[in-house]
Structure formats: C-alpha cells, structure tokens
Amino acid sequence: MQPMNTSARPVDPASTKPKVALAKILITEDELIVALDLQTRLQNLGYEIVGIAASGDDAILQVQEKQPNLVLMDIMLFGGMDGIEAAQHIREACDVPVIFLTANGDPATLERAGATHPFSCLLKPFKERELKFSIEMALYHHRTTRELREAHDLLEQRVDERTAELAATNTALQNELRRHRKTLEDLCAAHTIVQNANQAKNEFLATISHELLTPMNGILGMTDLLKESSSTPQQRECINVVQTSGETLLAIINDMLDFSRIENGTMAFDPTPFSLREQLGAFLKPLELRATAKLLMFSWSTAPDVPDRIVTDPVRLGQVLINLVGNAIKFTDSGQIEVNVVQLARERNRVHLGFSVRDTGIGVPKDKQKAIFEPFVQADGSYSRRFGGAGLGLSISAQLIALMGGKIALNSKPDAGSTFQFDLWADVV
Question: For residues 246 and 151, which has the higher predicted lDDT (pLDDT)?
C-alpha cells in the first residue's frame, strides 16, 4: 500500500458540488446494430446505459442484477419469451417501467402489449425528441406514482399505530379519545394534501397531453403525406406544417422539462461574460419579425449608463425575455411593444439592472395578476383555447429570476396593456 499524500492541495469548488444522477436504462433488442445505435442516441441524450439484453430471459436477469430506472423493450425477440411476456414479469416482479419499441403495428400485437400496462409504445423508426419525451414522462409518472403509494402506506401505518395506542390505553380513555380526534384531523389534512397533489399531477398530465395532441397529429399526418408525395408545392406546404407543429411541441416539452428541473432543484446556471446589447439584439430580432408580421410597432433600448460587458447567465436571461416578449406579442393585436433596460444601482464591479416589457394588449385583471405566475394558470381559461400554451412560461420566468436573485412585477389593466418588470444583479467585466 502506498503512503497517503498529506500535502495540502487546493480544493476545486466544482468538485464538491453534488452531481445529478443519470437515469439508468436497459436496452432489450436482439439486433445488435440497432441496439448499439440506440445506445449511442440515448447516451447523447444524457442517459446511462446499464446493459443490452438480447432476449426476454436475459432482460429479466439484468433487471434483477443492475436495477435500471427504465427498460426499452423490443416486442419481437428471439427465444422462448418475447418482449411482452418479459415486460409483464419485469413490471410485476421488479416494479420497473417499460417502454415498448416495435416496427410491427399489428393491432392484435399492440392490444396484447397494452395488456401489460407499459408506459408507452413507440413505432420504429422514431425521432430522438419522441424517445426523450416518452422516457422523461415514464420516469416522472413512475416516480410520482411510487411517492403517492409510499404516502398512502405511511398514512395507513399511522392509522394502525394510533389505533393500537387507543386499544392499549384503557386507563386514560378520555384523553386518548381527544388525541385520537386530533390525530384523525391531522390524517385527514395529510390525506387532502395527497389528494390535491394527485389532482395537480393529473391536471398537469392532462394539460400537457392536450397541448401535445394537435402538433403531434400534425407531425404524424404530414409525415405520412410526405412519404407519398413528390417535390411539389403541396410537399413544401406539408413540410412547413410539420416544422411549425414540431416547434410548438418542442417549446412545450422544453417548458415542461425546465419546470421539472426547477421543482427538483436541478436547474443549471452558467454565468458568462457577454455583450448585453449584442445579446439583446440576438434575443429580440426574431421576435421583432413576429411582431412586424402582426403589424405591431416593436422597439428596444438600453440606457447609456448601462454597462455593455456583464457576467450572468445569458441563456436564462434570454429565456425570460423571450417568454415575456413572446407573451406580449401573443396577447397584443394592435399598437406597440417596448423593451427597455436601465441601471438601477452600481456597486464597484456590480450593477443592478432593471428590465421592462410594455405592450398595448388585452391586459390582466387585478385579481388575476398574482395567479398568472403560478404553473398551468392563465388569466382566463378561454385564453388557452384562443392563444395556446400550457401556462408555464410566466411561472418559469418568475422562478428563474428568483434563482438569479431578482424579482418580477406586473402593472396591468384590462384592455390597457401590461408592463412586466424584473431586476437582477450582474458583475461588470
């Protein structure tokens, strides 16, 4: 054994930060080339591949040994056990979610696969966006279901413990009855919390499913048409529909993933030196084109005393601005949109910046202004049908600003426009 080196060494602060564990996935695919390609794609998406199984029996053994978080299962496998039988065993014995991968769209096969209650079934070939979304939703659904089950078991355990205490304390019956009533009230409150959490989860899944349904149908429908069409104006139109639907779907998925990261405390920030004025142009120029298409006047300005080179996370800053300006364009039918940046305070090499986004749109009623910063909430339920969206943009923006040490405020009146303001501190280069 070599002697331990006791000389003092500087500790890298980054090495002490906790690392987020990668989701572990087992691939079950009997075609090695397909399996290796899928392994590479999954690793590029940020997942850990714990193994590749070539048969149902092998998949069961590897699940028991390596305990993955999820199994991607090909339905048609060589050997005495196909993917459907293996998935049934894995689900019942190991409580691991399964996503089927198949090139066979036969209704009888799909119906038989569905009887095993997998989370999803993807038809080959599939896109990486579809694969990542199905994996993330499967992991989220399995995790929340397990947490609810554990909470339910805990409630039952507490009820049993209290009941046993009541039965054993005959000499202090009156006091025990009062304690029992208090315990029951606590249990009812806890049960209500669990029910509300379950309801919120269901509303979340329902909202996301509803918002994804239309663009997904557009993507799949137009893709089918493209397979049969030639290079014609119709084909170009179909491609535009596919692109628009895909961008809508991707924006919703990104919002959902950002919301999940914020809730889990895994949102990453990367402070970087950059030119504020150049970045504002990069963020706002595409939005100016959207505003111009709606015949809206669009302008942005930066006060002369605002330093140009600052250090903060440009991606998250841009995400907030794009959300706020995008909402302004969405809810403004005529008039103008203004974006302004001012210096609120200066302390040596730090600057306190104020950002504002003003529009002449439909405005927000006073009693709804606080609620719109909550997730999955819009000022009016009809807005989601008219303008679309899952109601996550403002919630994510408010939480990002809070994580960067600032806060957001809204000044608005119905039919008189809105002004969103937020602030943040940044280092000056």
Answer: 151
For the stretch 14-28, what's the b/e string if a residue is b when 16 or more beta carbons lie within 10 angstroms of its beta carbon? eeeeeeeeebebbbb
- CA 353, 414, 402: angle at the middle one, nearest 5? 30
Please answer whether residues 410 and 366 qualify as being in contact, where contact means their C-beta atoms are separated by less than 8 angstroms: no
Q: Which two tokens stand for residue 4?
A: 């331990």
**Does residue 226 contact residue 242 with C-beta atoms inside 8 Å?**
yes
Residue 308 has pLDDT above 60, yes or no: yes
Structure tokens at 321: 């601005």
418 by DSSP, 3-state: which? strand
Contact 39, 17 (CB under 8 A): no
Instruction: Indicate the SS3 state at residue 425.
Output: strand
Residue 73: strand, helix, or coil:
strand
pTM: 0.47
Q: Helices (H) and strands (E) in the chain — how many of each?
A: 11, 12
Phi-psi label, residue 292: left if phi above 0, alpha if psi -120 to 50, beta otherwise: alpha
User: Residue 244, SS3?
Assistant: helix
